[in-house]
């Protein structure tokens, strides 16, 4: 008995959030869903995401009956959070770029938001910057290649450091780039690459993500909800697509998802 959370992402990026949630609530039962068929979200239009995600999350809610839904994807959260909340009954916790804590900690008052194009181009991010980092210089950098690199790393294929360097270097070569001391990792895939990001960075950077804040929010919301009386099945990861090779299954098992099921839905 207890609570069950549905963790949803376009791939394995949500594992960077899951590990924080487990640290706060080790007894929380979880179902993880990776929408591999539609990854990466970062190069999809807002219209396409809003057309897909509310109905998909409503279906997944019916199937898994969670007490809370964690939308562990920045692009989905800044694009379709309100539409998803309207489509489901459980509370939904979205993941948004950690601009506020980054602005509070930056000493040079120069920070960057590193996310997918589908995140950094959204008005939601502009509003975050205006509201919480108005006195800072904020540089925006979008990359979908980093999503693929994170998936490669977690699937045991290694990280192509040349691609990583190529994607990140322009950020620090821009005007004021040398002054950046804080980078917001505005995609849940990107914290999975933080060790590699440190290797290709020529300056000392404080890498900031939202995982800890999301875990605190989930803990707070569930503390106010009654525990259910159903027997919780083991934690399970549902991979919506063909990307379910053994190495990838092993990674999910390491994060606590002992059952990994590959799905091929026509949606």
Features of this protein?
Rossmann fold; 6-stranded parallel sheet; 4-stranded parallel sheet; 18% strand; alpha/beta
Biggest sheet character: 6 strands, parallel
Overall geometric form: globular
Strand order of the largest sheet: 4-3-1-2-9-10
Number of helices: 11
Uncertain ranges: none
CATH-scheme architecture of the largest domain = 3-Layer(aba) Sandwich
* Radius of gyration using CA atoms only: 18 Å
Helix proportion: 40-55%
H-E string:
EHEHEHEHEHHEHHEHEHEHE
Structural class of the secondary structure composition? Answer: alpha/beta
Strand residues, percent: 15-25%
List the quaternary state of the chains. single chain
The CATH class name of the largest domain reads: Alpha Beta
Please provide the count of β strands. 10
Our measurement of the CA-to-CA distance between the termini, rounded to an integer number of angstroms, reads: 32 Å
Total discrete domains: 2
CATH level 3 topology of the largest domain? Rossmann fold
For the residues shown, what is the average pLDDT?
Answer: 93
Word description of this protein:
By secondary structure, this protein is α/β, with parallel strands linked by helices. It is 43% helix and 18% strand. It contains eleven helices and ten strands. The longest helix is centred in the N-terminal third of the chain and has 19 residues. The protein is globular and about 55 Å long.
Secondary-structure blueprint:
Elements: E1 4-9, H1 15-24, E2 29-34, H2 46-64, E3 68-71, H3 74-87, E4 92-94, H4 99-105, E5 110-115, H5 117-120, H6 123-132, E6 137-142, H7 145-154, H8 161-173, E7 182-186, H9 194-200, E8 206-208, H10 211-223, E9 236-240, H11 246-254, E10 259-263
Parallel strand pairs: 1-2, 1-3, 2-9, 3-4, 5-6, 5-7, 7-8, 9-10
Helix pairs in contact: 1-10, 2-3
